[in-house]
Specification:
The chain is α+β, with helices and mostly antiparallel strands and 147 residues long. It has 4 helices and 8 strands; from the N terminus they run αβββββαβαβαβ. It has helices at residues 3-6, 80-89, 110-113, 127-136; strands spanning 11-15, 20-25, 28-34, 56-67, 70-75, 98-100, 123-124, 141-146. Strands 3-2-1-8-4-5-6-7 form an 8-stranded mixed β-sheet, covered by helices on one side. The longest helix is centred in the middle third of the chain and has 10 residues, at 80-89. The N and C termini lie far apart (33 Å).
Length: 147
């Protein structure tokens, strides 16, 4: 196991406009990942099926080893604010937003997949990168998702 995988990070920051995710420990960037998101990544997720990735501060609250997309780490969307907004608009906020691995049905290579936004609002990395993140992220780690 590499030294990076032995590191436990204390913050994950996603910059949607740059298609980047950084993992940090005590304010220091440990690694930066190229990410894929939903087909319509601009703006905050409002409703189920809008293909958007949420924006704001959430918690990576559990890991799922048997994900359809290799492995996944759940993002605590929707939070109370998201639920109130959706209720006021009379819509479902959606949910089950994850950081996950590759699409097993894609004919593209893992690197090629990362060049396109193909998820339903999740954040995708390669399976190799997911293995690194799996070791570095513990449930309870905060994630900040910026526009």
């Amino acid at each position: 196991m590499s030294a990076i995988q032995n590191t436990k990070v204390d913050l994950v920051i996603v910059n949607k406009s740059a298609s980047e995710m950084k993992v940090l420990k005590q304010g220091k960037v440990i690694k930066t990942y190229r990410i894929a998101m939903g087909d319509a990544p601009q703006g905050h997720k409002l409703t189920e099926g809008d293909q958007r990735t949420p924006q704001g501060r959430y918690i990576l609250d559990y890991k799922k080893s048997d994900s359809a997309f290799y492995r996944s780490i759940h993002i605590s969307y929707p939070n109370d604010e998201d639920k109130l907004r959706a209720k006021a608009l009379g819509i479902s906020p959606g949910g089950f937003i994850m950081i996950h691995g590759e699409n097993p049905n894609s004919k593209l290579s893992p690197i090629e997949q990362q060049k396109y936004n193909w998820t339903n609002g999740c954040i995708a990395v390669t399976n190799k990168e997911m293995d690194e993140l799996w070791q570095m992220i513990e449930p309870g780690t905060p994630i900040e998702i910026w526009p």
